[in-house]
Amino acid sequence: MSLLELENVTLKFGGVTAVDDVSFAVEEGEVFALVGPNGAGKSTIFNLISRIYDPFAGDIRFQGQSLLDRQPYEIAGLGIARTFQNIELFEQASVLQNLLVGRHKHRKSNPVGEMFFTPFVRREEKRHRKAVEEVIDFLDLQPYREKFIAGLPYGVRKVVEMGRALAIEPKLLLLDEPASGLSVEETQDVAFWIEDIKKLMGITVLMVEHDMSLVSAVSDRVMALADGRMLAIGTPEEVQRDPKVIEAYIGSDDAEDAA
Ligand SMILES: Nc1ncnc2c1ncn2[C@@H]1O[C@H](COP(=O)(O)OP(=O)(O)OP(=O)(O)O)[C@@H](O)[C@H]1O
Questions:
Q1: Fewest C-beta in 10 Å: which of 6, 96, 207, 239?
Q2: What is the pTM of this model?
Q3: ipTM, two decimals
């Protein structure tokens, strides 16, 4: 059984078919990338998996169970965490506080227990702190742990967003353009982290990314899309060599990314 399966998924926005009969499966333990020119449907696929949109047709399954009868707020609890293209963190809160928010789905205590700070609540709090401290160490965020997000450089914020998703202890991590806006050096760091997330944490990664150097460095498999349709699926090399993929990029705004 694949970890995540999309089967004949279609979504239309008015007259635009953003995702057109798309099927693919992500296997446990792999890094799988979605690539394609602007408007190909990549972010819409993430929003479908996150249950922000209902597909017009088709099914989306996680660990064999359909996600279509789930609400968006249930998705993290099932073990799917995501980052956003436009970083979504609490600006006036510290790195530590932002990561603790990621632990929300693990909270088992009730409001009365929290009011009286019972031994159970204390133990639970310790467990959350430990999990978050591990993520802080893992992502080298120690120097920033008490700093407010508002004062942090863009590259660090992106790492914090990845940390918040990891603090959920997901089985599947959805990374929406993890390298966008980053320097070459920062992108290399992201590549190392993705490798470690896969190898050391055993987390499966599905990512949307325009930077083909990052895609080639970390992905086991890649699916290329254009105009909502699947063009090719395979190793990064196979997909980059595919004539349909080359043609889709030529003349698009993203021609340089494909080079
Ligand atoms: N909420 C929406 N309402 C109407 N049309 C939308 C909406 N979201 C996306 N679209 C359209 O659906 C198509 C796919 O968009 P999507 O954002 O998924 O592409 P993408 O591959 O993620 O592009 P990019 O690389 O630019 O982020 C585009 O034609 C887009 O204009």
A1: 96
A2: 0.90
A3: 0.96
